[in-house]
TrEMBL record:
<feature type="transmembrane region" description="Helical">
    <location>
        <begin position="161"/>
        <end position="183"/>
    </location>
</feature>
<keyword id="KW-1133">Transmembrane helix</keyword>
<feature type="transmembrane region" description="Helical">
    <location>
        <begin position="125"/>
        <end position="146"/>
    </location>
</feature>
<keyword id="KW-0812">Transmembrane</keyword>
<keyword id="KW-0472">Membrane</keyword>
<protein>
    <recommendedName>
        <fullName>GAP family protein</fullName>
    </recommendedName>
</protein>
<feature type="transmembrane region" description="Helical">
    <location>
        <begin position="204"/>
        <end position="221"/>
    </location>
</feature>
<feature type="transmembrane region" description="Helical">
    <location>
        <begin position="44"/>
        <end position="64"/>
    </location>
</feature>
<feature type="transmembrane region" description="Helical">
    <location>
        <begin position="76"/>
        <end position="96"/>
    </location>
</feature>
<dbReference type="InterPro" id="IPR021315">
    <property type="entry name" value="Gap/Sap"/>
</dbReference>
<dbReference type="Pfam" id="PF11139">
    <property type="entry name" value="SfLAP"/>
</dbReference>
<feature type="transmembrane region" description="Helical">
    <location>
        <begin position="12"/>
        <end position="32"/>
    </location>
</feature>
């Protein structure tokens, strides 16, 4: 198996887990539903999400490179300790999430409001995308873990860039799919996205807790298998 294939095999589960983000999904649906310029606002939200995702991935890559260079142990061992720590963190986060009181639905007021200009709208929703992905800890942690694997990998620069692009595209499916539905089926999209929005608002807490537990266990097992 090539270095690229091995690296893809490592990060694909993390990318798919990172793509499960009910809060972000609810956010993009609200933008497309109530924004004065839904297409522009949706694209701006997408760019903001991409920026923060790339920043988090870059941080993980830098950590991975640092671990590979500085550790006296093989990179796989150092990586395993990090996976174990991240896995434990996700389990604790899942416990907190399932016991959290109050609604997980974002404040609708942030998604509408009077529009001053196209530029101000673009900046507003780009910042909103940055913020919503930044505080979406599950996605952030999983992208960081994927970045760490990329940084530690001995794959070449081109292969790593390819993997980062794939990681980005998969993680942002939560924004890309609603945008695609809205752009290709503008008349039917409101009904479809509204049904999805209602379901997500009812079940987002349990869905995210499940993702945290599943990937927490996955990373812990991944780490333990290397260490023991």
């Amino acid at each position: 198996m090539s270095e690229l294939s091995t690296l893809l095999f490592d990060i694909l589960p993390l990318a798919l887990g990172a793509a499960v983000s009910p809060t972000v999904l609810i956010g993009i649906i609200l933008i497309l539903s109530i924004s004065n310029r839904p297409k522009l606002s949706g694209i701006a939200f997408y760019f903001g999400s991409m920026i923060i995702l790339l920043i988090v991935a870059a941080a993980g890559i830098l950590l991975g490179k640092g671990v590979a260079v500085a550790s006296s142990k093989p990179p796989s061992v150092a990586s395993a300790y990090l996976d174990l720590a991240i896995g434990i963190f996700l389990i604790l986060l899942g416990i907190w999430r399932i016991n959290k009181k109050g609604s997980d639905a974002p404040d609708k007021g942030r998604f509408g409001g009077k529009s001053k200009s196209s530029i101000s709208d673009f900046i507003k929703y780009m910042i909103l995308g940055l913020g919503m992905f930044a505080v979406n800890f599950t996605t952030t942690v999983l992208v960081f873990a994927a970045g760490k694997d990329i940084g530690i990998s001995s794959a070449g620069f081109t292969d790593k860039v390819t993997v980062v692009i794939i990681l980005t595209l998969i993680t942002l499916l939560v924004v890309e799919i609603p945008l695609l539905v809205y752009f290709t089926m503008p008349e039917r999209s409101e009904k479809l996205l509204n049904v999805l929005n209602i379901w997500m608002q009812k079940n987002s807490r349990y869905l995210m807790a499940a993702v945290m537990f599943v990937f927490g266990i996955y990373l812990m097992v991944k780490g333990v298998r290397v260490l023991f």
